[in-house]
Amino acid sequence: MKALVYEGAGARSWTDVPDPIIRDPRDAVIRVDAVTICGTDLHILGGDVPEVRPGRILGHEAVGTVVETGAGVTRLSAGDRVLASCISACGACRFCREGRYGQCRGGGGWLLGHTIDGVQAEYARIPFAELSTHRLPRELPDDAAVLLADILPTAYEVGVLNGGVRPGDTVVVVGAGPIGLAAIRTAQLFSPAHLVAIDKAESRLQSAKNLGADMTLTPEQVPLGAIRSLTGGLGADVVMEAVGVPETFELCQRLVRPGGRIANIGVHGKPATLHLEELWISDVTITTGLVDTSSTPRLLDMLAGGQIDVTSMVTHRFGLEEFERAYDVFANAATSGALKVLLR
After folding, report:
1. The whole model's pTM is what?
2. Which residues lie below 8 Å from residue 169, measured CB to CB, with a gap of 6+?
3. Are the beta carbons of 237 and 261 closer than 8 angstroms?
4. Which of 63, 156, 318, 336 has the smallest set of CB atoms within 10 Å of its CB?
């Protein structure tokens, strides 16, 4: 089969690889019907995730059809259309029993495209298949369903829930890429008073407006003054970092009010300065985290029921054989206007 293979920092190839096989009774093999590229994949290609070794098939966001199951899989059958979660869960360890699947110590956690081969391929092996896939309703299209694999639960859990968004809050999202936009969309479920997006790209700020932001700013527009003006001089109740670079994390520290919350969502490849000399006296809460995907069933119900509409975030579509071009388009979002790219 063909797959997108990481060849070392800055190098990738769409090339021939062996077909996946069942390695554990709890495995399933799926035919990949729709797959997308994540900002984390760009961090991997930039050398920011050293656990990913050359030769690894990338990708952790896909919708597929089950073609084979291991002997221990009883709730999935060949022909089932499923969402492949970005997080795999053993279901038995302490953290899985708490619903914290991202911290699984029984062989799960973030595996796909990280420590095992991922889903940017024609076929993929899914470990712990019964706990790491979700059957999809027929009426839910691939371009909506695939966003449930990672960006929607990540934005909702690591951003909105960790940040403790409450009715009447002023919420600032730094970075209006796919994760930031999903955070804006899911934050609205909690009725904040203001949703502010900060990004360098005007096209992404326009997307933020379309998804519910009532104020958009570029870094050059002195966001600190604008946020203080909006909040009577206090600062934002919740600030979400959705980029993963030191400068944006430091900006979040300047924008938060005393007693506020900073929710870091971005994947950081370099150290970022924590200004404890300024924050220690302000009772600021800072959260980090890998998504658990425990919210996926609820988000799936809301998506299927029309309570969340995110299909506008898929801006470009390709065939699987166009993976190299799709990566170029996604990596150059400032010029291409790409948010999420979908490959079938």
Report:
1. 0.96
2. 190, 192, 193, 194, 236, 237, 238
3. yes
4. 336
Kindly report, residue by residue over 37-60, the tens digit of the pLDDT: 999 999 999 998 999 999 999 999
State which CATH number among 3.90.180.10, 3.30.70.240, 1.10.1660.10, 3.20.20.60 fits the domain covering 2-150+292-343: 3.90.180.10
* E strand segments, the chain: 2-8, 11-16, 28-36, 62-69, 81-84, 123-126, 133-135, 170-174, 194-198, 215-217, 236-241, 256-264, 285-287, 314-318, 340-343
Q: Which of 176, 240, 239 is nearest to 212 (CA)?
A: 176
Query: How far is residue 49 from each of residues 73, 87, 223, measured CA to CA in Å?
Result: 32, 17, 31
Q: State which amino acid sits at residue 208.
A: A
Structure tokens at 158: 């690591």
Measured distance CA(184)–CA(327) in Å, rounded: 25
Q: What type of residue sits at position 196?
A: V
Length of the chain as a residue count: 344
DSSP 344: -
Contacts of 12 (CB under 8 A, 6+ apart): 4, 5, 6, 45, 58, 324, 327
CATH architecture of 153-287: 3-Layer(aba) Sandwich (3.40)
